[in-house]
Amino acid sequence: MQIYWTKINKIIEETPEIKTYMLDCPEGFTWEEGSHTHMGLEGFNAGDKPNRGLVRHMSICTLPHENAIGITTRIREQCSEYKATLRNLEVGSKVAIFKTHSNVPLKREDKNIYLLSSGVGLATFRPLVLEFFDRPDNVNQIHSLNIDSSKDFLFPEIFTSAPDKKFTAQFVDSRQNYYEEVKKLAADKDGIFYVVGSDEFLEQNIEVLREQGIRPEQIMLDKREQQRSSFL
């Protein structure tokens, strides 16, 4: 396993609780849209065994042509050891990235794509939308549905409806409204549904989609195949 040590070159405060850490691209490091990586903080591999408390599975919210690896995360006042350590890092601090993989690349099957997420889950979808804007081949259109009661919407410069680009962005402020909208979207029996969020959120979405007749192969999860099969 190759570990790439790199530096934070910029910290963006997206909202009062959400930050994006922009990392330098190490030589030889590559990724595609929908990728996640493991981000280790200094000291995670200092002992005989890795300190799992200093490692997290993170989505990459940028594309390679942006020349930075973007990691967007929510850091609440009461948070884990990992988030507390991350909050204290500054530009120039070192972090490690390793085990990078994409479970949710953009499917180009001449179908409508629906991106279903909650809050910071939009970070996983940002590169898919950018990839679609850059190269819309074999994708009919994309619709993003996100639950966010804060009104501090993430990436507003991207997640804004653009009919000329065949992209719509929709935000709702409650789970009840959200699942009503999911049912409406599932009227498209040929669509592809990407779901990102907590395991509980995935299970609830899958239940609603399956009840509406959406097949497992139409549901994309940011999970390895073995994990994916346990949900579906």
CATH class (first level) name of the largest domain: Alpha Beta
CATH superfamily annotation of the largest domain: Nucleotide-binding domain of ferredoxin-NADP reductase (FNR) module
Strand order within the widest beta sheet: 4-3-6-1-2-5
Helicity, as a percent range: 10-25%
Unreliable residue runs:
none
Average pLDDT for all residues: 93
Cα Rg? 18 Å
Ends apart, CA distance between termini:
29 Å
For the record, the count of structural domains works out to 2
Total E-strand runs: 11
> Which architecture name of the largest domain does CATH use?
3-Layer(aba) Sandwich
* Beta-strand content estimate: 25-35%
User: And the CATH topology of the largest domain?
Assistant: Rossmann fold
Oligomer: single chain
Per DSSP, the total helix count is 5
Strand count, sense and barrel status of the largest sheet are:
6 strands, antiparallel
Sum up the overall morphology in one term.
globular
Summing up helix and strand content along with how strands pair, one would put the structural category as alpha/beta
Element order: H for helix, E for strand = EEEEEHEEHEEHEHEH
3D architecture notes:
The protein is an alpha/beta fold. The protein has 2 domains: 4-102, Translation factors (Elongation Factor Tu (Ef-tu), domain 3), CATH 2.40.30; 111-231, Rossmann fold, CATH 3.40.50.80. It is 22% helix and 32% strand. It has 5 helices and 11 strands. The strands form 2 sheets. It has a 6-stranded antiparallel sheet. Strand 1 (4-13) and strand 2 form a beta hairpin. The longest helix has 13 residues, at 122-134. It starts with a strand and ends with a helix. The model has no long low-confidence stretch (mean pLDDT 93). This is Dihydropteridine reductase. InterPro entries: FNR_nucleotide-bd, Riboflavin_synthase-like_b-brl. It comes from Lederbergia graminis.
